[in-house]
């Protein structure tokens, strides 16, 4: 087990290095250059001078190595756009994103998993069909539109909820935070919910067909017990896989949801860094997300062993 | 007469900027959205930085809200020597930094010498101050600035986003530390009407009023800049009453114009819209073709539709809002497709079989590069394509992201043929000189006219304003003759204000925020 984990860690480090090289090359080859050089009031002379001062005139590999050297020393550098240390920006965005995506995931799981089981158990009934239709609808709603509709209805017309942000500036209370959390959580959890319902349903259907479930039923085990004790645990394996795959996406932040609701999270930070070609910030975010992806994949693999006695690592 | 007065009062009550000052309400929070995290460091450019920095810092000079002429900000008054090279600034004596330290001549000397003209500090407007040769402190509240040659636009440039910084907090930093002064930025200190209170990255910057502001205590308690990247969300926040000002593009007008929660204020600014021409491209190097392009484009219609009727038809790069330097006797070329067609005919461009004119076998066909994310430019492109087709000029589209476009038009030689774009310049005709001088790197149209060079250089150094006005009238006439670009519209800035706003100074918001102490809310 320890050997397995060590090998996986080694592979992961190599993978992360490749990801950063690839990302750096991509940013550097994008046209336009960092937005700090593109203020329309700036004379071409000043642009050239700033290019040198920031080191953009150096060869790309040199810029990359410089960045890597800094990172190895534990320094993610300064954001060109905001003029703050990238680590500070990520430290402030990550909790906001974890809160939003954690809440959305939780809400989605609490609602979607039971609904998925229900749909599987009542397969082909009107309940199943309604759930299928609704979840397809949820999956196909574009968040930039759906989010805006939520804002218009609940913030502009009804004025029940704030239209965006995480706090009303100057009021840092939990109640204020919860009010701001409702709409983005609804927007973000809808699509996750739809995905989870579909996934749970098909996993459960697959399990319910298996021999050991039939055996349990034949032994006269009551149906609720068959579903909760026997089928549910096995059916959760693919669902946990999906949740594992969702976690990095959630840490990366839901870029569109965060932008629409002006939520100060990782997704919004990434989008703005990309627009500004603020490469220290882009690289910092890439690094954090790749680490999370790799670690969460590892954890999911280890969880399989817990959930399914047939899986073991040695 | 009395009726008129009543009418005026009624009008004044409807238009926020016209309310008499004494009736203003005290207190409240004024919020406005900005697209991105600001850097409260006036060395860096970018609109969202400029807006915040205008309220936190002061310059030596700001612009009069009506005439846009430079008036004292931290300077009380100034004099210029006979030869036009030495400016003596008398500074205000009642100014304190937000940390309570007094503002003195040392701050001015430090900022000009160690920040603006220091080649190792990435000040984005350094080129505006390239003529500064020396800055000396005469006494605690008097400063002499020596220029290498006369520059009558110097006071205007001093008012253009050039903030004075605190010597007592920054003088110990090296040039390298001044690139990212992280500690200073945790608690930036200025002399402006609002002082820094809180910065929540990605969310907002909160400023509180500076009780000791030299020009009177600000009416508001707080100003909040909220970071809202999405344009639709910005409008939703305005309609929900959570922000008080969104500067909108004309196409957004329709969705909020009739909303009682919103009032619209449109103000002229020193900005012009145009379709940029690469004057080196065969075909476009022909003045007859460029003139025909202007005449075949219905700019009145463009103004009425794309710009929501807010603005005036443009005749050139000088803004009419800088009244003394604008020759209003020059009329825009008429919209006359027939005359445009005969101009092309005379120049040898004859109609080919497919409805496209040609000369020596070359078709009159160009590629127009635009950013589809900006509906104003995209609609301009579409209208131009349709109307130019009517006179036998074919336009093909190429779309690209805005920053990539900027990079391409700034290449030397410029890498485009036609491109709808805009310019905002300081309120002095010298502000656009850099874009039209033959050898300038900013001349993205590759337009070269020695006569223009001579006049622009003369205008830049002539001290007498009446003489300068004459020079710039000639520049305007020649540009009108040469049509180096298709000048379309001087658009107003359209400010959508929440109904609660009592007064937002009537000027472009960059300039108005330099007077943020005058803003008030009910």
Automatic annotation (TrEMBL), chain A:
InterPro entries: BPD_transp_1_N, MetI-like, MetI-like_sf. Residues 94-304 form the ABC transmembrane type-1 domain. It comes from the Bacteria. One of its GO terms (cellular component) is plasma membrane. Keywords: Cell membrane, Membrane, Transmembrane, Transmembrane helix, Transport. Pfam families: BPD_transp_1, BPD_transp_1_N. GO terms for biological process: transmembrane transport. The chain crosses the membrane at residues 12-32, 98-121, 133-157, 177-197, 239-261, 281-304. It is found in: Cell membrane. It is a multi-pass membrane protein. Belongs to the binding-protein-dependent transport system permease family. This is ABC transporter permease.
């Amino acid at each position: 087990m320890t050997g397995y984990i060590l090998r996986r860690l080694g592979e992961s480090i190599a993978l992360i290095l490749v990801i950063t090289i690839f990302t750096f090359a991509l940013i550097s080859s994008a046209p336009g250059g960092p937005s700090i050089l593109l203020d329309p009031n700036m004379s071409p002379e000043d642009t050239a001078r700033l290019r040198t001062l920031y080191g953009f005139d150096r060869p790309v590999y040199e810029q990359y190595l410089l960045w890597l050297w800094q990172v190895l020393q534990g320094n993610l550098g300064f954001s060109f756009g905001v003029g703050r240390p990238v680590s500070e920006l990520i430290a402030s965005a990550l909790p906001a994103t974890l809160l939003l995506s954690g809440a959305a995931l939780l809400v989605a799981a609490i609602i979607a998993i039971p609904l998925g089981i229900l749909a599987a158990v009542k397969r082909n009934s009107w309940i199943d069909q309604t759930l299928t239709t609704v979840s397809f609808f949820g999956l196909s709603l574009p968040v930039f539109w759906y989010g805006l509709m939520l804002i218009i209805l609940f913030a502009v017309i009804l004025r029940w909820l704030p239209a965006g942000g995480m706090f009303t500036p100057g009021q840092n209370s939990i109640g204020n935070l919860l009010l701001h959390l409702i709409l983005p959580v609804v927007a973000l959890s809808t699509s996750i919910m739809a995905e989870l319902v579909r996934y749970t349903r098909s996993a459960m259907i697959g399990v319910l067909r298996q021999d050991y479930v039939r055996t349990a039923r034949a032994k006269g085990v009551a149906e609720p017990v068959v579903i909760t004790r026997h089928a549910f645990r096995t059916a959760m394996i693919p669902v946990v896989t999906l949740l594992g795959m969702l976690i990095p996406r959630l840490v990366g932040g839901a870029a569109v949801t965060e932008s629409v609701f002006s939520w100060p999270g990782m997704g919004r930070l990434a989008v703005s860094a990309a627009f500004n070609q603020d490469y220290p910030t882009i690289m910092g975010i890439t690094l954090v997300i790749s680490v999370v992806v790799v670690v969460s994949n590892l954890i999911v693999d280890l969880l399989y062993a817990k959930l399914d006695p047939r899986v073991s690592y040695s | 007469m009395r009726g008129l007065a009543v009418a005026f009062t009624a009008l004044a009550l409807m238009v926020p900027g016209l309310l008499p000052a004494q009736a203003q309400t005290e207190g409240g929070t004024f919020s406005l959205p900005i697209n991105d995290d600001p850097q409260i460091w006036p060395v860096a450019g970018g609109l969202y930085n400029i807006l915040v920095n205008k309220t936190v810092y002061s310059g030596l000079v700001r612009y009069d809200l009506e005439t846009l002429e430079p008036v004292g900000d931290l300077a009380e008054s100034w004099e210029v020597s006979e030869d036009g090279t030495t400016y003596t600034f008398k500074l205000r004596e009642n100014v304190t930094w937000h940390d309570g330290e007094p503002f003195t001549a040392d701050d001015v000397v430090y900022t000009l010498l160690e920040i603006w003209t220091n080649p190792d500090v990435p000040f984005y407007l350094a080129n505006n101050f390239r003529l500064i040769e020396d800055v000396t402190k005469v006494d605690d509240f008097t400063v002499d600035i020596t220029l290498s040659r006369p520059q009558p636009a110097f006071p205007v440039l001093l008012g253009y986003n050039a903030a004075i910084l605190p010597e007592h907090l920054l003088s110990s930093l090296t040039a390298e530390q001044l690139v990212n002064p992280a500690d200073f930025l945790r608690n930036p200190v200025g002399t402006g009407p609002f002082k820094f209170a809180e910065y929540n990255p990605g969310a907002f910057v909160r400023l509180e009023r500076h009780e000791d502001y030299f020009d009177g205590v600000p009416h508001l308690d707080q100003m909040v800049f909220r970071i809202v990247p999405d344009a639709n969300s910005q409008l939703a926040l305005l309609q929900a009453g959570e922000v008080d000002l969104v500067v909108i593009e004309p196409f957004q007008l329709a969705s909020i114009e009739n909303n009682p929660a919103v009032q619209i204020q449109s103000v002229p600014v020193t900005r012009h819209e145009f379709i940029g021409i690469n004057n080196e491209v065969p075909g476009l190097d022909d003045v007859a073709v460029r003139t025909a392009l202007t005449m075949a484009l219905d700019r009145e219609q463009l103004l009425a539709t794309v710009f929501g009727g807010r603005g005036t038809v443009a005749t050139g790069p000088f803004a009419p809002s800088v009244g003394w330097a604008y020759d209003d006797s020059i009329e825009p070329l008429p919209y006359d497709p027939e005359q445009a067609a005969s101009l092309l005919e005379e120049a040898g461009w004859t109609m080919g079989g497919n409805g496209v004119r040609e000369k020596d076998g070359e078709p009159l066909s160009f590629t127009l590069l635009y950013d589809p994310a900006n509906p104003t430019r995209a609609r301009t492109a579409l209208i131009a394509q349709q109307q130019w087709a009517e006179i036998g000029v074919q336009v093909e589209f190429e779309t690209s992201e805005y920053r990539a476009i900027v990079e391409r038009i700034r290449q030397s030689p410029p890498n485009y043929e036609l491109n709808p774009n805009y310019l905002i310049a300081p309120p002095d005709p010298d502000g656009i000189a850099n874009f039209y001088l033959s050898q300038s790197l900013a001349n993205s149209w590759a337009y070269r006219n020695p006569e223009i060079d001579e006049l622009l250089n003369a205008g830049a150094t002539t001290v007498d304003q009446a003489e300068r006005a004459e020079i710039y009238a000639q520049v305007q006439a020649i540009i009108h003759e040469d049509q180096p670009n298709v000048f379309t519209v001087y658009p107003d800035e359209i400010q959508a204000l929440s109904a609660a706003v009592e007064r937002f100074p009537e000027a472009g918001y960059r300039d108005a925020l330099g007077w943020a102490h005058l803003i008030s809310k009910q």
